[in-house]
Amino acid sequence: MTDESDAEEEPVDNQKAPSQLAAKLFTAHPPIADEPSLEPAYKESFSTAFKDNVYTAWKLWSKGANNPTLPAIVKIQKGRLPDNSLYILPGSHKLIDFENTLSLTALNTLVGARTVILGSFRKLLQELCKIHQFDLVFVDCGPSSGALNQIIFLSSDYIIPPVYADYFSTTSVFGLLTSVVDRWLTWYKMFVSEQAQDADDCASVFRFKQQPPKLLPLLVNNIKLPTTGTLPSGASDATKMFTIPAQVKDIFAPFTDENGSETMVIPFLKELTRANQISMKLDAQL
């Protein structure tokens, strides 16, 4: 996508941004900001240290303007990837402002306008992928069943649900699989059907994809495993402990082990708490 508009450059507030943060808004290529200093003395939060973040970008794109600007992204120079090909778009506490907007939009707005507002998040990520040639985009969401997470969920291709091996995560998984996702998928199917009948060509590029996201296995963190690295024989697949609606099961993408058995629960990070303690003690990433 190429922005041919004559958007004026906006000055960068050097009091709130690192000195090397790119000052230009998106023209032919969106700017990439250098990695900020993350020393303890740096007091500003990530979401306020940059002019561009998820909130400002999504807010702009949800207006459906022609050729909206793309946000600057931050390249992580000291990541684990050999070619340092890890970038982030900072989050923002202001995202909560979208909850009421998205909720009211989903219920009361005409189909064309709803399509633009609700589909703008996926469209924004698609354009970033085109420009920067990203292979994968990970969206880190908080534990909520509100409208914000609903739109992010339905805008994604895959869902990775990390959980702890404890009672509270079990109850959260129960609610997610028996109620929350089922409700979201019911709304999704209704809205996709409405979009197919809508003749608004301007909103067509913001339409939801025709298939809902796939739900990947639950990644169990902070669990001590035997030396075999497998779950104890007495452990049950949490997704088999309660009745799950058929349309939720339809989006399952189970893991298949070397024996051909499928499961929706797999161990991920062993003894996460201990790893965090060691990391803090060494003042280094593990």
Automatic annotation (TrEMBL):
Q: Which InterPro entries would you find in this protein's record?
A: AAA_dom, DNA_Partitioning_ATPase, P-loop_NTPase
Q: Where is the sequence biased in composition, kind Acidic residues?
A: 1-12
The region called Disordered is annotated at 1-20
Segments forming a coiled coil: none
**Ranges of residues in domain AAA:** 84-179
Q: Which domain of life is it from?
A: Eukaryota
Write down a Pfam family by its short name.
AAA_31
Spell out the protein name for this chain: AAA domain-containing protein
